[in-house]
């Protein structure tokens, strides 16, 4: 039996008659980088919102380390070690890079998010914050005000703040969205680097990003599981190729 950290059973979400996630059975293995991919409208983000408890499933179950978390609240699963990084850079723009990471680390002091704590009590976190910045290649940006950083570096900072919360399972939502080629490459390498000893589940639309780093890929289409396997397996799957190419020629002819 492989060690499954996160599992869904017949996970389904309906919105007023529209089924956004349809009977999805997902199994994420501990230590893997697992990607959830699919064309626009495939249900990837809805699925992620169910896993992180921002949405309540219509039916089905979610298990984390074998424990049913279907009815848990977002704060509860965060305490369990499921930490999500957001599609839009979830950082404080007018704090420095170091200060952003330090806020993520406050949880360990038992003073989580008490912004009025004295600077002195927080400075004990500086060494650990600098270690995390080194892990994501941001040491030189420690004193930079976040708003002044390039977009790709902000995403790296977001990964550092996610790491600060000691995730057992990291959920990355479209980590390379809106990036140029150079930033995409840097963030992809970064995900690979920080995955050592961790489990990552990422929503991604870019096949090139997942090709080199993912152990397993789950492809969704119209809310349902279309295919699953290694990159080599899913990238040569005829149904996946058609889903990514969009409509078939027969459908196009019928549209005229």
Describe this protein's structure:
It holds the Pfam family BCA_ABC_TP_C. GO terms for molecular function: ATP binding. Keywords: ATP-binding, Cell membrane, Membrane, Nucleotide-binding, Transport. This is ATP-binding cassette domain-containing protein. The chain has 256 residues and is of the alpha/beta class. The protein folds into two domains: 159 residues, Rossmann fold (3-Layer(aba) Sandwich), CATH 3.40.50; 85 residues, 3-Layer(aba) Sandwich (Rossmann fold). It contains eleven helices and ten strands. The strands form two sheets. A six-stranded mixed sheet has the order 6-7-8-3-9-10, sandwiched between helices. It has a four-stranded antiparallel sheet with strand order 2-1-4-5, with helices on one face. Helix 6 packs parallel to helix 7. The chain is globular and about 55 Å long. The relative contact order is 0.17.
Largest sheet: 6 strands, mixed
Strand content of the residues, in percent?
15-25%
| Helical stretch tally | 11
Strand arrangement, major sheet: 6-7-8-3-9-10
Please report the distance between the alpha carbons of the first and last residues: 52 Å
The CATH topology of the largest domain is Rossmann fold
Mean pLDDT: 87
* Unreliable residue runs: 247-256
Tell how many strands the DSSP assignment holds.
10
